[in-house]
Amino acid sequence: MMRLFINALAANAGGGLTYIRNVVPHLAEVPDLFSIIALSPDLRQEFSGFANNVDFLEFRAIPGRRVWLEQLELPRMIRRHGADILLSAGNFALRRPGVPQILLSRNSIYFSPDFFKDLQERREYRMWLDTRMRGVIARRSIRWADATVAPSEAFANELRNCGGDARIVAIPHGFDRQAFCGDTSPLASHLEAKLREAENSLKLLLVSHYNYYRNFETVIRALPILRSRLRGHSIKLLLTCKLAPGANPGSYNPARAASLVRDLGISDMVVELGALPYRQLHHLYRRANVYVTAAYTETFAHPLVEAMASNLPVVASDLAVHREICGEIAVYFPRFSAEALAERVAGLAESPESMRSMAAEGEKRSHQFSWKTHVEKIVDLARDLIGPKAAIAQ
């Protein structure tokens, strides 16, 4: 039986959390595999009822020191639990784990010129320096790992440009329709009230906690343009975050976005729902009319698959990753053009037939993404990496 050690200590929000939530149930179903998963105690309560082939290790890493603590503590844990291979799920590899290592690289900001330019314009110099330093470690991690997995071919190509002769493999992330739509509990009353108020509006949805690389400001600047273009229509932007300091994970400051909403006089158009439990997001997708994203860098974009699976037309920034996920199903615009974004949304709003067609084709395309398939390919890669070691041992 292969023993797989997974470093999931970085899975606290966003794509990392989505990843762990979805892969663990499928790992538990793989025969001849025992998984040991190191994760934050805050996340442990989400996982219960698994078979005897999954074990969880609670490990609280101090924010800002996680990378260094991992380098010191995790190799000892790996040896103690007799693991055959390590899956590092948080963008950074261990320098000397003592076993073959697969690195999951899923954070494009370390490699994005747009992100560093954005930080300079915002005068976020401390974050700029911190991200630069993390970027150095992320690049070295590619060389430390025996194989690096990217969640899309587009991002894999970015990594190949800085990874030298490292082994880089694209294994797309998946989607589990049953897990995503299975929860039937109603939304909280205050959320339901906000959605009822927007019932007769054209509802645009953006699912993300506030951060800079999702480019909220371009979406916000598009709203008054869209209102002028669609005179007589009520338009609402539904956000799964709040544009207030301290209301979102991480250290991103939403003050600029909040000021922009006030300065443009569009407070009535922005509905700040705040974070929703993942299991209830499907309610929100099905209440919206169009999914929008102006992200200027991305690695996979789970919400695009979730939107397509929910029969929601997609208007997305013209990134290679977005085109890989949605193909010809979505409508694209230059990532910093609020005018083009407004024009694409208006075009859809004025063509109900196009919206219905996009929704139907998107739902079909969402079936291409499978967490079960993703896990199978990760396990195959792991067996391939330990194969030579096993042969030598024999």
The third-level CATH topology of the largest domain is Rossmann fold
Average of pLDDT: 91
The CATH homology group name of the largest domain: Glycogen Phosphorylase B
Corresponding CATH architecture of the largest domain: 3-Layer(aba) Sandwich
How many strand units?
A: 13
Specify Rg, calculated over alpha carbons.
21 Å
Q: State the shape.
A: globular
| Beta-strand content | 5-15%
Order of strands across the widest beta sheet? 3-2-1-4-5-6-7
Q: Determine and state the CATH class of the largest domain.
A: Alpha Beta
Main β-sheet: number of strands, strand sense, barrel status? 7 strands, parallel
Helical percentage: 40-55%
Report the total helices.
16
Which series of helices and strands comes N to C? Answer: EHEHEHEEHHEHEHHEHEHEHEHEHEHHH
Low-confidence stretches: 390-394
CA-CA gap between termini: 15 Å
Structure, described:
The protein has helices spanning 14-27, 41-44, 66-80, 113-121, 125-144, 153-160, 177-181, 189-197, 216-229, 255-263, 281-287, 302-309, 320-326, 338-349, 352-366, 371-393; strands spanning 2-7, 33-39, 54-58, 85-88, 101-104, 147-150, 168-170, 202-206, 235-239, 270-272, 290-293, 314-317, 331-333. The two termini are 15 Å apart. Residues 390-394 have low confidence and may be disordered. With 394 residues, the protein is α/β, with parallel strands linked by helices. Helix 9 packs parallel to helix 10 (255-263), helix 9 (216-229) packs across helix 14 and helix 12 crosses helix 15. Strand 8 (202-206), helix 9 and strand 9 form a beta-alpha-beta unit. The chain has two domains: 2-174 and 370-387, Rossmann fold (3-Layer(aba) Sandwich), CATH 3.40.50; 177-366, 3-Layer(aba) Sandwich (Rossmann fold). The strands form two sheets. It has a seven-stranded parallel β-sheet with strand order 3-2-1-4-5-6-7, sandwiched between helices. Strands 10-9-8-11-12-13 form a six-stranded parallel β-sheet, with helices on both faces. 45% of the residues lie in helices and 14% in strands.
